[in-house]
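To the wet lab folks,

You asked to see what we're planning to order before we commit. Fair enough. Below is the target structure as tokens, and below that is the sequence we designed to fit it. If anything looks off to you, flag it before the synthesis order goes out.
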């Protein structure tokens, strides 16, 4: 092992991390079982979930298994997390001009999905975990508020109890964006199962992955049927095989194709079997690094085991945005996978959101419709969120990191902390 000096790597010193780190979650564990599952589907020549020469019903089986894993009756697989959010919004009846409360910190897909339905994202402040702050919701409600979209960020649960209380009090639906938190829980209840609908992503960065893929879950059979129907060209197919298609029934609507392939379903069936062990490994990794750096004079969010048990990395704040940027630059130099969360900026600071750029003339921003209120966005809208993000440092951890990797990550953080005047 090379000798680690205390000179920062960006100043020519030895990097703290001595080998490339794999921070991926489900992807880092892909192996023989996934290969075998794909081969089975290929050999059966049945890559479509509803029929084929020798349909194996892998996608349908994955739906059954993940519904059981999460503890609810209905799960509908689809092509991406964004598709899942759109199916969820449609199931809940969100349409042109309806307002949806979205946290100011999230991936752009949460916003895109709302706008794709003609809905208006209304941005809310976040708490110290960068999750939608339930206390921020009530002042944003209007007669057009149709849904609240809590986003469980990086494996951490939104504080769902007060959030659900506000939603129920005002009769507003809750769509949990669980893209980044498959398998995480809130007070022991799996995320995605607390609100009216949960939406998951299986994109490469996620806890289980098929490259792209998504899932909608709900306790409500009607919401489930609406979501499935929309994702399958509006539901005009009578075929009774391959899971849900034949169960949905009823009249057809105009819809689109947001279906999952059998290849994706087969991979996810295998990945699901690894989910809990993967989350436990990341949790142990996180405790190991946290305990080695917790005395540093940085601000960690207060420990909340009922929310952060399956956080996927380490989050802390420095005193200024300049310090945070310098910290991230130096820590990257040390070989640690790190970034300011979402580049240190709220989602509405993306120019396409600020300028309300859609690609066609359509509701809610580029229409002549007077049926809804016009909103505008500006930097400064959610000052607490902006302040937290600008000062944030996030470190990604993965299930394949071993003791040496974790020791080196902690050493890298300590090395940089000693250098930056905190
Ligand atoms: C919070 C959040 N919502 C939605 C999505 C969209 O998922 P996908 O990329 O599968 O469309 C993602 C991730 O990529 C995400 O992180």
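Sequence we intend to order:
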């Amino acid at each position: 092992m090379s000798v680690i000096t205390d000179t920062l790597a960006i100043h020519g010193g030895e990097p703290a991390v001595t080998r490339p780190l794999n921070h991926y979650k489900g992807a880092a564990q892909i192996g023989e079982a996934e290969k075998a599952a794909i081969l089975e589907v290929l050999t059966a020549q049945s890559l479509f979930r509803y029929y084929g020469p020798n349909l194996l019903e892998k996608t349908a089986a994955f739906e059954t298994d993940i519904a059981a894993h999460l503890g609810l009756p209905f799960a509908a697989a689809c092509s991406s997390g964004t598709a899942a959010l759109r199916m969820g919004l449609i199931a809940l009846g969100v349409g042109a001009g309806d307002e949806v409360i979205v946290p100011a910190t999230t991936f752009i897909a949460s916003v895109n999905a709302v706008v794709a339905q003609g809905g208006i994202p209304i941005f809310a402040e976040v708490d110290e975990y960068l999750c939608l702050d339930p206390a921020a919701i009530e002042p944003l409600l209007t007669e057009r508020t149709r849904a609240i979209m809590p986003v469980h960020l990086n494996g951490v649960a939104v504080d769902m109890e007060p959030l659900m209380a506000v939603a129920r009090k005002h009769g507003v639906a809750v769509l949990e964006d669980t893209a980044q938190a498959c398998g995480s829980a809130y007070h022991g209840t799996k995320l995605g199962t607390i609100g009216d609908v949960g939406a998951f992503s299986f994109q490469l960065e996620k806890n289980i992955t098929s490259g792209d893929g998504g899932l909608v879950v709900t306790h409500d059979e009607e919401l489930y049927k609406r979501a499935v129907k929309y994702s399958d060209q509006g539901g005009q197919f009578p075929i009774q095989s391959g899971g849900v298609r034949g169960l949905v029934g009823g009249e057809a609507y105009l819809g689109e194709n947001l279906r999952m392939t059998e290849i994706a379903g087969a991979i996810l069936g295998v990945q699901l079997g690894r989910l809990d062990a993967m989350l436990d490994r990341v949790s142990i990794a996180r405790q190991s690094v946290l305990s080695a750096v917790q005395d540093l004079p940085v601000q960690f969010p207060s420990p909340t085991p009922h929310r952060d048990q399956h956080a996927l990395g380490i989050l802390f704040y420095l005193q200024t945005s300049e310090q945070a940027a310098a910290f991230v630059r130096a820590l990257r130099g040390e070989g640690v996978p790190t970034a300011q969360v979402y580049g240190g900026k709220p989602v509405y600071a993306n120019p396409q959101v600020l300028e309300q750029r859609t690609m066609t003339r359509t509701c809610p921003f580029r229409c002549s419709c007077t049926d809804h209120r016009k909103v505008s966005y500006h930097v400064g809208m959610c000052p607490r969120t902006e302040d937290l993000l600008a000062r944030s440092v996030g470190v990604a951890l993965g299930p394949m990191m071993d003791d040496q990797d974790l020791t080196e990550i902690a050493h890298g953080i300590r090395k940089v902390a000693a250098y930056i005047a905190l």
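Structural context that might help your review: The radius of gyration is 22 Å. The chain has a mean pLDDT of 95.

Thanks,
Computational group
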